[in-house]
C-alpha cells in the first residue's frame, strides 16, 4: 500500500504532460464545479506541503483485489474484459457470520481509496458497538482500480473511458459485496453502506437500486437534487455567501467589493505584476482570472469544509476584518489569504486547478453524466456573475473529451424530481445527513421523506462532517447528530433481525 | 403497420439461411427453455395456418418512433449511436393532462409489439374506467425496433448485439415515458406499467428500479424467481405434469410410458419411418428426439396456455383417453396430437423449433443473462430426465454465440433471493399475478410480500390469462381476479392523488 502515493505523484507530472491540452480545459470546467470530496484534499498539494505523508493503514486493514467486469450492461466480447478492483477489509471488530453481525461498507468515490480510509471515522468509531465487519471498496478508475493500470492510459482510450460512470460503479459494489458475503458465508449479515459527498449519492442510490444487497445507507452530504432544475443554480454560491455574511457582514462586503478592485488594478499598466506582488503569488499571474479563480475556490473550500475547531470561514474573515488599519480592500483580502493558509513564502494561485487524479476523473464524470448546474447570477451572491449555461458546458465538454454530456441521465436513472411524492411510499432505510453551512447542502435532502427516509442535519455543520473521526473537541450538535445516526442504523438492524427470525419461524411452522 | 408481418415473414427464410448453424444450436437450447410469451404464438406458424392474418390496429392506435440511445451505461463515442424504437399510443379514452389522468403502459417483451397490442385486453378493457392514456412500447431488438434495421444484421454484429438485454430495455422504457409525459405536459399523470411473462418481469423490475417513472406495476405470470437456485429446477415440468395428472390420471400415465415406447419403435429397422407414418409427420423424422421434442413442447404449451373455454390439457387428454379401444400407447398419444391440433393432412414436428423472431431473440437473451435453470430429473415428472446442467449450457451458448452467459447477473442486478425479507419493507405497488396451472407460476411470487406488494393468483388460471381481453364466457374466478387487480390499481392511483394534493397544500402553506 505504501507505494500508492509515491506512484500517484510519480505519474502526476506525466499525466500533465500527456493531457496538457485536454486537462487545461478539463480543469477549467472543473473550477466551475466545486469539488465534491469529503476532505479538502487540494490543500495537500500546496507548495508548503511537499512532505506529503503517505497514509499508512494499520495491519487491521487487509487489501484485496476483485476481478471486476468492465461493462455490466453489455454482452459483446469486449465487455467481458476484466479489471482489478481494490477493496479493503477490517475484520478486527466483526462478530462473525454465525451471529449475523453487520457489515459496514464505505463506498469509495472520486479519489484513491487509501486516502479515504483513515478519515472515514464513522466506520472505525462505530465498529465495536455493532461488532461490524468493515469493508471499503474503491471506485472504478481511481487509485488502484483503474482499468489499463493508469489513469492516463484509461483516459486516453475512448472506449475504456466510456465505462467510467456511476451505474457501472454501483454494479461493481454489488458484485464485490455479494462475493465477500459468499466467501465469508455471511449470507444473513445486514449490509449498511456509507458514502460521503459524491460517494453519498452513490450510497443512497445503491440502497434504491440494490435493496437486496444493502439494508440501509448513510448518505453524508449527498447533493442528489443538484441536477436538472431541481435546485436553483445559485444554491451553492448563495450558501457560501450566507456563510461569510453570517461570519461577518464586513468581511462579506469586503469580498463582494474586491472583484472589481482586482479588475481595476489588473487593467493598469503592469497591473498583473502589482497583483502578483500584492498577493505574493509563487509564479507571476497570467491573468486576473487566475487570481479571482483562486480566491473563488478558497472561499468555497473554506465554506464547504467550515468545520470545528478552526472554522475556516471565520479564519478568512478574521484575517480580512483584523487587517492593519488603513489596509485597502485588496490588502484585506490578502490578509484573509494569509489567515486561511498560514504565513508562507508565497501563495500558489494554481493550487486548486492542478490536475490531481480526482480532478481528472471528476472532470470526466461531470462532462459525461454528473452534470450539476452550479452557477450564479449578477448580484445574487458575493461573487461576480458566472451563470451555468448548459449549451456552453456541452460545447466545452465536447471539445475536451469529444463526447457530449447527457445532462438528464441522472434524473432519468435515479430520479430526483418530486422526490417526496415518489419515495414517501417507496424505499426505506436511508439517512440523508447534511450540515447546512455546507454549500452542497443546497442540493441535499433536508426533510424527512417518510418515517424511514430521514434527513438528519445540523445548522452549523459542514461538508461530510458527520462521517469524519470523532474528536474530543467536537461540539455537542455534532455529537448529537452522530448519535442520532447510529441509533437509526441500530433500529434498522434490530428490525432486520426480527424480520429474519419471523420469516424463519414461518418457514418452520 | 401492415407491412410488418409481411416483412417478418419475408426475412424469416433469409434469417434461417444466414444463421443456419447458430440457429440450430440456438433453438436446441431454446427447446430446453419453454417460451415465455403471453400467447402461444407458435401455433400461428403451423402448416395449416399459412393464411397468416396480419394484425391490423384500429385508427385509435398511433405509431411513433423514438430516437433511442443504444447504450445507456457507457459514454464512448459509439454508445451515442441511436436506433429507432417504436411505440404506440391510444388517446381515445384519456382524460387529459389537466386532470392528471393516468397512463397505462404495456412494456413490450420478446416479440414484435404489433402482435401483442390486440391481445393485451387489460389496457383497452380498463381504459374507459380510468380515463387512461394507453402507451405500448416495443422491446429493443424486436419488431420495428431493431438496431441496424433487421434481426439478422443486428445479430450478426457482435458489438450491437451486446446491447440486447433487460437493463438497457428498462432504460429505454424510462426514456420513452419521460419523453411522452413531457410532450403531453402530463407531468403528474401516474404511470402504471403492465407486462406479461418476460414482460411481467420487466414490469416488476421497472417499478423497482424506476419508481420515479412508474407508480405501480402489474406483473402477469412473471417468473422472477426462476434464477439461480431460488426455484427448484423441475418447477416448470412438475407443474406441467401436475396439470396432466389432474386432468386425467390415465392420460398422465400414458404419456409417462410413451417415451420408452417411442425409443423402442425407433430402434427397430425402419423405426423412424414407422414413427413418421404413425404420427403423420409432414416430413420424415430425422431422429426419435425430433418427435419427443415435439411432444414435449406440445404438452408444455398445452399446460402453459391451458385456458378456458377450451382447456388444451383437457383436449390432449380427451384425445388420449378416448382413443379407439385397442389403441396402443403411441396410438393414444397420436390421438392426443389430433385432439389438440385438429384434424390435419399432416403434423409438423418442427413447428416449435422454427426460428421465429422471438425464438432467435430469446435464445440470445437466455444465453446472455436470462439464464433460467429449467430442467427435470429422472422420475420426478412425466417426462424423461433432462437436467439443466449449467456447465453444458454455458458451453452450448459459447459455441453458439461466442460469449458466455452470466448466470448470476439477474439476481445481482434485480435480486430474488429472500425476496420477502428484502422487499417487505422496501418498495410498493406491484401486483404479481399468476395462474397456478401455468408451469411458469412455479417461479412466480405467490405470497404477499407486504400490504402493497401483492400476489394475486387463481388456482385454475394459465399463463398471462388475466391480461388477455375479457370474454363473456370467462369463468367467475378469472373475472374476480381481474376485478381485484383493477381495484388494487385504483387504490394506488387514489392514494397518489391524495399525496399529490397534500404535498401541494404543504407547499402552499
From TrEMBL, chains A, B:
Protein name according to UniProt: Lysosomal Pro-X carboxypeptidase
Organism annotation: Cinchona calisaya
Signal peptide interval: 1-26
A GO molecular-function annotation: peptidase activity
Family as reported in the entry's similarity comment: Belongs to the peptidase S28 family.
Domain of life: Eukaryota
GO terms for biological process, alphabetical: proteolysis
Keywords: Glycoprotein, Hydrolase, Protease, Signal
Keyword Transcription: no
UniProt-listed Pfam families: Peptidase_S28
PANTHER family according to UniProt: LYSOSOMAL PRO-X CARBOXYPEPTIDASE-LIKE ISOFORM X1, PROTEASE S28 PRO-X CARBOXYPEPTIDASE-RELATED
Amino acid at each position: 500500500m505504501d507505494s500508492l502515493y509515491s506512484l500517484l505523484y510519480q505519474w502526476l507530472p506525466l499525466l500533465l504532460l500527456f493531457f496538457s491540452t485536454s486537462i487545461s480545459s478539463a480543469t477549467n470546467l472543473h473550477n466551475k464545479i466545486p469539488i465534491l470530496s469529503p476532505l479538502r484534499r487540494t490543500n495537500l498539494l500546496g507548495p508548503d506541503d511537499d512532505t506529503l505523508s503517505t497514509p499508512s493503514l494499520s495491519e487491521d486493514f487487509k487489501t484485496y483485489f476483485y476481478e471486476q467486469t468492465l461493462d455490466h450492461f453489455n454482452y459483446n466480447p469486449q465487455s467481458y474484459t476484466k479489471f482489478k478492483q481494490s477493496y479493503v477489509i477490517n475484520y478486527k471488530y466483526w462478530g462473525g457470520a454465525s451471529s449475523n453481525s453487520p457489515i459496514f461498507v464505505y463506498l469509495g468515490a472520486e479519489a484513491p481509496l487509501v486516502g479515504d480510509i483513515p478519515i472515514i471515522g464513522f466506520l472505525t468509531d462505530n465498529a465495536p458497538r455493532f461488532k461490524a465487519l468493515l469493508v471499503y471498496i474503491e471506485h472504478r478508475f481511481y487509485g488502484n482500480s483503474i482499468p489499463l493500470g493508469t489513469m492516463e492510459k484509461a483516459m486516453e482510450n475512448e472506449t475504456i473511458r466510456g465505462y467510467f460512470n456511476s451505474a457501472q460503479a454501483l454494479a461493481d459494489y454489488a458484485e464485490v459485496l455479494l462475493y465477500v458475503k459468499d466467501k465469508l458465508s455471511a449470507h444473513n449479515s445486514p449490509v449498511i453502506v456509507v458514502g460521503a459527498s459524491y460517494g453519498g449519492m452513490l450510497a443512497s442510490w445503491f440502497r434504491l437500486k440494490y435493496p437486496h444487497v444493502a439494508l440501509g445507507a448513510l448518505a453524508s452530504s449527498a447533493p442528489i437534487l443538484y441536477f436538472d432544475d431541481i435546485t436553483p443554480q445559485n444554491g451553492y454560491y448563495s450558501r457560501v455567501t450566507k456563510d461569510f455574511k453570517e461570519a461577518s457582514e464586513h468581511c462579506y462586503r469586503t469580498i463582494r467589493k474586491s472583484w472589481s478592485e482586482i479588475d481595476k488594478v489588473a487593467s493598469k499598466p503592469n497591473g498583473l505584476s502589482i497583483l502578483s506582488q500584492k498577493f505574493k503569488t509563487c509564479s507571476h499571474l497570467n491573468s486576473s482570472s487566475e487570481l479571482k479563480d483562486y480566491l473563488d475556490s478558497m472561499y468555497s473550500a473554506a465554506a464547504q469544509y467550515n468545520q470545528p475547531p478552526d472554522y475556516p470561514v471565520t479564519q478568512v474573515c478574521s484575517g480580512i476584518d483584523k487587517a492593519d488599519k488603513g489596509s485597502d480592500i485588496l490588502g484585506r483580502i490578502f490578509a484573509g489569504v494569509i489567515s486561511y493558509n498560514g504565513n508562507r513564502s508565497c501563495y500558489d494561485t494554481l493550487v486548486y486547478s492542478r490536475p490531481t487524479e480526482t480532478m481528472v476523473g471528476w472532470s470526466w464524470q461531470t462532462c459525461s453524466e454528473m452534470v450539476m448546474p452550479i452557477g450564479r447570477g449578477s448580484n445574487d451572491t458575493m461573487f461576480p456573475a458566472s451563470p451555468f449555461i448548459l449549451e456552453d458546458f456541452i460545447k466545452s465538454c465536447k471539445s475536451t473529451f469529444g463526447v457530449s454530456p447527457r445532462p438528464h441521465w441522472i434524473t432519468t436513472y435515479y430520479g430526483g424530481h418530486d422526490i417526496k411524492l415518489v419515495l414517501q411510499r417507496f424505499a426505506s432505510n436511508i439517512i440523508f445527513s447534511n450540515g447546512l453551512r455546507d454549500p452542497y447542502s443546497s442540493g441535499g435532502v433536508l426533510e424527512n421523506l417518510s418515517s424511514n427516509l430521514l434527513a438528519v442535519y445540523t445548522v452549523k455543520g459542514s461538508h461530510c462532517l458527520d462521517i469524519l473521526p470523532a474528536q474530543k473537541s467536537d461540539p455537542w450538535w455534532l455529537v448529537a447528530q452522530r448519535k442520532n445516526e447510529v441509533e437509526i442504523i441500530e433500529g434498522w438492524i434490530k428490525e432486520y433481525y426480527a424480520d429474519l427470525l419471523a420469516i424463519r419461524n414461518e418457514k418452520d411452522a
